[in-house]
Amino acid sequence: MSGPILETRALAFHYPSGVRALDGVDLAFERGSRNAVLGANGAGKSTLFMLLNGVLRPSGGQVLLEGEPLDYGRKGLRRVRSKVGILFQDPDAQLVSADLREDVSFGPMNLGLDRATVKRRVEEALAATHLEALADRPVHALSYGQKRRAGIAGLLAMEPEVLILDEPAAGLDHRSQQEFFELLETLRLKGLTVIISTHSVDFAYAWADRVFVLEQGRLLAACDAPEFPEAFPGFGLGIPQVIELQRALEARGLPLGPARDHAGLLKAIQGLEFNAFSPI
After folding, report:
1. How far, CA to CA in Å, does 51 sit from each of 69, 86, 154, 223, 234?
2. Looking at the domain assignment, is residue 28 inside a domain?
3. Residue 43 CA, distance from chain mean position
């Protein structure tokens, strides 16, 4: 299918308090792409994500899924939730059952699937998130990082086409960050469209296909990740460290060409820069 899998047109949202969270935002996420959404606290990232999933309804403009405006009726929202999964910042907000296997099965069971299909989806989701050994553990006994992965397992069991992750590495220790990075690679190989909010320019540059910047509810810029250094210096986000390293080496007579073409540099920055994640 051609065209973006998910997009917004003149999207606006005002909270009842009068706060304008989004104002005229136009975005497009291509099928199978990796997308990073950058912005300071209060930029509108979390509100955008809840609009993309149908949790909130726009004050103006539209959200389109596969070219069609979202249908906010019960049947329409069920379709949206089956295709667009969202992981919120607080993992406890999405863990609803006593043990992990039961929690992961909650979503597909609500789709009305037969038991054999639900079981297959649950086991595949647990395997993808490396949680098989913890399947019968009470969810309250999981570590913070394990709860993050459990939330993603619950989404994967729904077999979505789009996965939205709101600051997914916030609060994770180094080992959990590395496990999460490996999980992102698994999702990429599955062909999912992944949208992540982050404060880390290093992660955005190294991982994403497309990068978007929000400020006070408006879209400031959007570009392909390789264009990042030229497109974003005016927004106070800084320059990715891998670019600084590349420039330093070139200044010493070691021209390397585009930084993203060099797996060694990217591996180094990917191994370090999950520490740059911070909560909204």
Report:
1. 12, 11, 20, 22, 28
2. yes
3. 16
Q: How far are the Cα atoms of 14, 37, 49, 199, 229 from residue 268, in angstroms, in the given order?
A: 41, 22, 30, 19, 18
Q: Is 35 a member of any domain?
A: yes
Identify whether the C-beta of residue 161 lies closer than 8 Å to the C-beta of residue 120.
no
Closest CA to 265 of 208, 202, 223: 202
**Total domains in the fold of the chain:** 1
Provide the pLDDT confidence category of residue 170 given band limits of 50, 70 and 90: confident
Cα distance between residue 255 and residue 270, in whole Å:
21
CB neighbours (10 Å) of residue 273? Answer: 24
* 130 conformational bin, left if phi > 0, alpha if psi -120 to 50, beta if neither: left
- Over residues 32-90, the pLDDT tens digits come to 999 999 988 889 999 999 999 999 999 999 999 999 999 999 999 989 988 999 998 88
Q: What is the mean pLDDT of the chain?
A: 84
Please tell me the distance from the alpha carbon of residue 55 to that of residue 17, in angstroms, as a whole number.
18
